[in-house]
Amino acid sequence: MDTIMIDGLSFALPLFIMAIGGIYSERSGIVMLALEGLQGFGAFIGAMTVILTRVYLGNSSPYLIYIAMVAGMIGGSLFSVIHAVLCVKFKARQVISGVVVNTLAVALTTFLTSVINGIITGEASNKFQIGVSSRFTVPILSKIPIFGGLFKNMYPFEIVILVIGVYCWYLLYKTKFGLRLRACGENPHSLDAAGGDVGKTQFIAIMICGALSGLGGIFIAYSVSGIFSPTIYMGYGYLSIAALIFGNWKIPRTFAVCLFFGFAKSVVYQLLLMLGMPSNFTDLFLIVPYVLTLLLLIFFSKHNHPPRAVGEIFDKSKR
Amino acid sequence: MNRMKVVVSCILAFMLLFSIAACGGTPAPATPTQPSGATEPAGAAPLKVGIVTTSGVDDGSFGQDCYNGILAFQKNHPEVQVNAIKEPDVSKVLDAVAAVIADYDVLVLPGFQFAAAGAIAADNPDKKIILVDTAPTDADNNTVELANVYSMLFREEESGFFAGIAAALESKTGKVAVVNGIAYPSNVNYQFGFMSGVNYANKHFGATAQYVELPSYAGTDVTGKNVAGNYIGAFADEATGKVVGAALIDQGVDVLFVAAGASGNGVFAAAKEADNVWLVGCDVDQYDDGAKGDKNIMLTSGLKVMHSNVEKQLEEIYNGTFKGQNVVLGADTDSTGYVSAEGRQQLSENTLAKLKEAYDLLKAGKIVPAANFNEQAPDNFPGL
Predict the structure, then answer these.
(1) Contact with chain A for residue B294, Cβ under 8 A
(2) Does domain A7-134+150-318 bear CATH number 2.60.40?
(3) I need a labelling partner for B157 at 20 to 30 A (CA). Which of A77, B174, B229, B384 fits?
(4) Per-residue pLDDT tens digits for A291-306
(5) Which residues 206-225 on chain B approach chain A with CB closer than 8 angstroms?
(6) What is the rounded distance in angstroms from the CA atom of residue A258 to the CA atom of residue B306?
């Protein structure tokens, strides 16, 4: 039971933080298919920073993961500038730009990892060994029956993600900036008429998205393998796009969807272990959450409202 | 504004090209472009050697070990041209081989997925192919022996055997486990070898270890037989690897032998997050992958010595003494073994001594650990 809670949370939260990024971008009117590439590039920069700073701080320094988080966020947002420049400044097709960012990230990080490893260690290797994150247990809360598992063996990332998640919710719904951002996605001309800068708002939204995706990426790198390698591109970015669509572009509902994805996965894994079924069935069971998602989407998607102006290229003269 | 667009689109086009290039071929860091040297046989063009991999020649494992063999050969013969080709899509590797074979004199093809390259080799009798880990097959999927193909298989069960002894002797909880990728023969060999090793250590060296298996991750080998063990079901699924690793550690396992490709990274991560869990690497010396902060949890690694065998065959080609054949290599040719070098393993003196003893017996043919298809069982094999 504890394992289900622990694993479920650590599967769900990286999805959640990336999905928030996607929500920011899409609510500002920019289609965001680049989450996969952004998380990978963020993880790459985070991992590279760990490799470089480790020389000075020592291998077991507890600060490394925090440095990695910050570097991952910076890396993700820097890489998202490509998408922002293409979509906002040059008004390119946002879907195509997103795909370009994804493809570029895979190729570029694979190539650079080899080259940088070659320079640092003299041996070309396609992975950065960043080690594993420390984990901690919250004292009293972890004693709660059943749900206590949620507070056991937590990654520091999880707290950071939850705090950032709440702040992002506040920023999007309770501040002037959030209002403007949402206006960009619904009716950019109204924002323009009110004297706001649509391009600037979208640019910032995309960079926030990059930063959040980068954080998700470095969390995945730490929690799944303790390595940065091209296997980080295993589709979590796309899964979080599904989560935000299913979550109707709203942060609280997306959080619930991410938890559903995460716990479905951990429940299935533990169920299989308990039942002791032959491994042929493992893959079959692992698709159950996604089949459920598909079914639920069929019933609920007609109530979904994507931001009205998402994907539309903002043209001032059409007002 | 318009000119800006042109400039940016040029930059983007360039980046796209760059990314495609990065996808297509991992650059070979040491490819020399010097003109033919004096050591070259008179009149002949310099030998061109290519290696095609799915995981890259920088994967820290299989591909890299073969590549190192080529580089060692090149060091002795600087005029040789070497190029590494990466085709990540397993279903396209044979097309890749067929497309490039005309440009090379020798192709090194590491991996199970290249078996059908036998047909390509038959069509190109003037080209040499070095196959690692598989025998060539013809168009009808029958194993063949070709004059221009040297194929090497390894007795993985021997490496697994040493790993099993090391794990059984070093375990404090008395529970050990082997984690594999997919139940291909090479993986089953590792698994059975490991089990043989644990049984051997229990019987002859006073160990009391048992191997733990998760029924829900039992493997099905190429003949459809259930071989039990712990199979992740893929070679690149780190997330499931971590779940399997953590489940085994939950059951008290404190030494894990991991032969699962990139999925093994997940098992490594699970071991590093737990306390007092040790790892045994596989194929190549994986000591560096065992780093955990300032510590290291890699006990030793079961070895499959590819580089020196690749180098040896390249030398034979160079000297014109090459002979196409299918061979199975083992400890008798120093092609399997374990890491015993100081500073690259953390075994106790006692374990090292016992391993040496078993190694000598195995090399002399007194011990034949069980493998997928050698008619021996892990609890009943010659030498037990």
Answers:
(1) yes
(2) no
(3) B174
(4) 877 887 788 777 788 8
(5) 214-220
(6) 45
Q: Do B294 and A59 touch (CB under 8 A)?
A: yes
The whole-angstrom separation of Cα A166 and Cα B188 is: 49
**A contact test, residue of B231, B238, B244, B249 with most A CBs within 10 A:** B238
- Identical fold for domains B42-154 and B156-304+331-363, yes or no, is yes
* pLDDT(A124) > 80: no
pTM recorded for the entire structure: 0.84
User: B52: which strand partners?
Assistant: B85
> How many other CB atoms are found less than 10 A from the CB of residue A241?
22
Interface contact A273-B247, CB threshold 8 A:
yes
Task: Give residue limits of the domains in chain B.
Answer: 42-154, 156-304+331-363
Phi first, then psi, for residue B255 (nearest 5°) are -135, 125
Residues A151, A155, A156: CA angle, nearest 5 degrees: 105
Annotated domain spans of chain A: 7-134+150-318
DSSP B191-236: HHHHHHHHHHHHHHS----EE---GGG-EE-TTS-EEESEE-S-SS
Q: A139 touching B, CB under 8 A? A: no
Q: Which of B8, B216, B292 sits opposite A131 (nearest CB)?
A: B292
Answer yes or no: are the C-beta atoms of B307 and B108 closer than 8 Å: no
Tell me what pLDDT residue B272 has.
Answer: 93
Distance of residue B59 Cα from the nearest chain A Cα, in angstroms: 6
Q: According to CATH, what is the number of the domain B156-304+331-363? A: 3.40.50.2300
| Residue pLDDT, tens place only, B2-33 | 555 555 565 555 555 444 444 444 444 444 44
- Whether A191 contacts A147, CB under 8 Å: no
Q: Which residues of B touch A110 (CB under 8 A)?
A: 22-23
The CATH number for B42-154, chosen from 3.40.50.300, 1.10.8.60, 3.40.50.2300, 3.30.450.30, is 3.40.50.2300
Residue A109, pLDDT above cutoff 70: yes
* Beta carbons of B19 and A118 less than 8 Å apart: no
Largest CA distance in chain A: 65
Residues 5-64 of B with CB under 8 A from A: 5, 8, 12, 15-16, 18-20, 22-23, 26-27, 29, 56-60, 64
